[in-house]
Amino acid sequence: MTHISDIKLIRTDTTLDLSQKAEKVDTVQCLANGEVISIRLASSELAGSSRTKIIVGISVSLAIFVILAVAAYMFWRYRAKQNEPTPVVIDTSEDAWKNDFAPRDISGVNFVEMQTIRTATDDFSSSNKLGQGGFGPVYKGKLPDGKEIAVKRLSSSSGQGEEKLLIYEFMVNKSLDIFLFDPSLKFELDWPTRFDIIQGTARGLLYLHRDSRLRVIHRDLKVSNILLDENMIPKISDFGLARMFEGTQNQDNTRRIVGTLGYMSPEYAWTGLFSEKSDIYSFGVLMLEISAGRGFHGSSLAMRTKAFLHMHGNLGARPGE
C-alpha cells in the first residue's frame, strides 16, 4: 500500500466527459510522494460548495443588518427620551413657597403669607392700585399692625419668571419729582431739606456700590426714583434695570442701552459701557436738579452747567425763584 504523506492539489482546466451524462467535470491533480494522481470531480459537487459560501455570506450580511437596525432603533429611543419634557411636580402645600429659598441665605428677609397680603390690599382691589410699572401693577396695603405697604405684583408675562410679589415700605410723600416740579409744593423743600435728600441719596448709593454683599449698579438713578417717607428721608427705588457685579468686576458692557436720556453718562449712552461712575454721573444730574429746583436732564451738559451757575449766581436766592 502506498502511503500518502504530502498531497498538493493542482487545479486544471474544466473538461467534458460524454460518458457521465454530459456533466461538466473538473480534473484535480494530487501530488503524493512525487507521483501525480488525477481525480475528476463532478460539477454538482463543486456547486454545493459555492452554494454554501453564498448562504454563509447572506447570513452574515443579514446578521449585520439586524444588529445595525437594532442599534439605530435604540439610539432613536434614547434621543426621543432625551427630548421628552420633564414632568413638573408642583407642591401646593401652604409652605411650599419657602422651599424655593431653602438653599439660600435669607437672613434679615421678612416673609408675609399670601392671605395676609390679599387682606391688606382688599384682594388687589383697583381702588388700592397705585400705578402700573413695566413688571406689573403696584398696590397699596395695610398690615394688621397698621403698617402701610406697597405691593408690586410681578406678572408672569414680565419675563421675571412665575408670578411673584414684592413688598415695600409705603412712602407717604411719594417721589421727589412731585415736590421739585410742582409749583405749589417746591417751596416746601427748604435748603436743609434739600441737603438732607442729597446726603441721604449719596449714602444709599454708597451702600449699593461699596457696602452691599454684591455691588449694584442702578443704571436709572433719577428724581422720580427717589421716594420720600413721612420725614422726607429719601429711599432709592426701582431696580428693574440694575446690574450686580461679583468679585473684582467693576464695569460691564451692553448693546442694549436702557435708562433715561439726560441722566446717562456719555460713555454709557454712546458705547454701552457702565460702572459705578455711570451712577455717579446720574447722581450729579440729580443733585443739580435738587439744588436748582428744576429739571435739566433733557439738556446738554454745557446747558446744564450754564443754567446751574445762573441759578446760583445769587447765593441768597430761594430755590426755584
TrEMBL record:
One of its GO terms (molecular function) is ATP binding. Residues 124-321 form the Protein kinase domain. SUPFAM superfamilies: Protein kinase-like (PK-like) (SSF56112). The active site is at D220. Gene3D superfamilies: Phosphorylase Kinase, domain 1, Transferase(Phosphotransferase) domain 1. The chain crosses the membrane at residues 54-76. Mg(2+) binds at N225, D238. Keywords: ATP-binding, Kinase, Magnesium, Membrane, Metal-binding, Nucleotide-binding, Serine/threonine-protein kinase, Transferase, Transmembrane, Transmembrane helix. The keyword Transcription regulation does not apply. It comes from the Eukaryota. GO terms for cellular component: plasma membrane. This is Protein kinase domain-containing protein. It comes from Microthlaspi erraticum.
